Amino acid sequence: MQKHIETFSDLKLDRSIQKAVAETGYTKPTPIQIQAIPFLLDNHDLLGCAQTGTGKTAAFALPMIHNLISTRAKPNPKQPRSLVLVPTRELAIQVHESFVLYGKYTQIRTAVIFGGVGQNPQAKAIASGLDVLIATPGRLVDLMNQNLVSLKNLEIFVLDEADRMLDMGFIHDIRKIISYLPKRRQNLFFSATMPSEIEKLAKSILVEPIRIDITPVSSTVELISQSVMYTELADKKNLLLHLFKDKNFKKTIIFTKTKHGANKISELLNKSGIKTDVIHGNKSQSARQRALEDFRSGKNRALVATDLAARGIDIDDITHVINYEIPYVPETYVHRIGRTARAGKNGIAIAIAEADERSLIKDIEKVIGISIPVDRDHPYHAARVESHTGKAPKIHGSGGGGNRGQRRPSQSGDNPSGRNANSQQNSKQNSHRSKGQSEKRKPSDSGNKSEPKKSSPSAKKSPRAKKSRYR
């Protein structure tokens, strides 16, 4: 039975980590941190069903840093001791920043790799030897194929946002990566939802895992005030501009289904004097990072985003989330509105729906288990739309993964080929060595065969993970 935990000091983390956490101003761990950290410190495998905004990153980063510095093993060139696999560049950067922050008083070595930028600085960082590598699947497979990284001595494997990996078409890359992992390792598996294919993948990786469920997808954050505004399609833009007359819309994310739609809304708002930027798959890495920073700092009131581009963005104090276009998948709505009401604060989520989206609102209400209040107190309310009973038109395309025919975006946050170098990556962003007292380290236990150079073995040949114990 776990000891009662109220503050981070109640967790058995190394003093250097405790000091770094204290400097962030956090004192009380979140529910997933309270439940997960003690088990991870004991090297258990973990299956976590948790959305962004729950403190998930710290839940695995803190015990990982503790265990890595406790074993005092020296990382070998090209052979990272741990791997965190994430679906998008933005999330990769944010996870890396968390490891840098929490490990700044240790000697832990970290690096982040992703597509869309030159690979040379990334390869150089890996060659120096790493304790933690954060990676997107496409770039990692690319470097593995070039023998620039080896996973044969990996001690800890983290698969984050597995459901989004599936949606983005990375399942084959993931299976290939898993097939190269040593049998003796600790596994951490996180997903906001658990479709059948994700459950099968989890079972193939984990051994006797501890399961933790935080904020199930069927429920939304209680602190979010939700409403839906019904209007005619032709009045959607006018209603959006009307909302921004309210000065309380200080930091607002607006979601659209397509990149073209996102550009149009950003252009509309900027022409109306509302400082706005946009992020989607066609934006260069530097442009996306600049847009996020301008939004985070308050320079821009609004950020227009597509779902894939926004996944994993963790920005505090978002006041409003506007669903300008209603998603076809109800769970996507849950992910969208979860951008607000972080860290115990209140937030507001507004859905702007036209007639063809009326049935989508009904689908969302079934999933979240409540009726979303209708806001008629605006000049563009359409009673005809509110009472519409027709179904949403089907979107034809090659979509999969349970997206009900919704077209899969042609470009994700990661570039699987890793050969689009439109922007340059700062070498300091790729690699970081934290300041702190040096430690003597012993070589880590390996005992696994060398990695093949060529094509991916079949998923059926993937070795089943076995429980890690580093004691």
TrEMBL record:
Domain Helicase C-terminal as annotated: residue spans: 235-386
Protein EC: 3.6.4.13
One term under GO cellular component: cytosol
Compositional bias ranges of the Basic and acidic residues kind: 436-454
GO MF assignments: ATP binding; hydrolase activity; nucleic acid binding; RNA helicase activity
Reactions accelerated catalytically: ATP + H2O = ADP + phosphate + H(+)
Source species, domain of life: Bacteria
Motif Q motif, chain ranges: 6-34
Domain Helicase ATP-binding as annotated: residue spans: 37-212
Tagged with keyword Hydrolase: yes
Stored Pfam families: DEAD, Helicase_C
Ranges where the DEAD-box RNA helicase Q domain occurs: 6-34
Coiled-coil residue spans: none
BP terms from Gene Ontology: response to temperature stimulus; ribosome assembly
PANTHER family xrefs: ATP-DEPENDENT RNA HELICASE RHLE, ATP-DEPENDENT RNA HELICASE RHLE-RELATED
Protein name: DEAD-box ATP-dependent RNA helicase RhpA
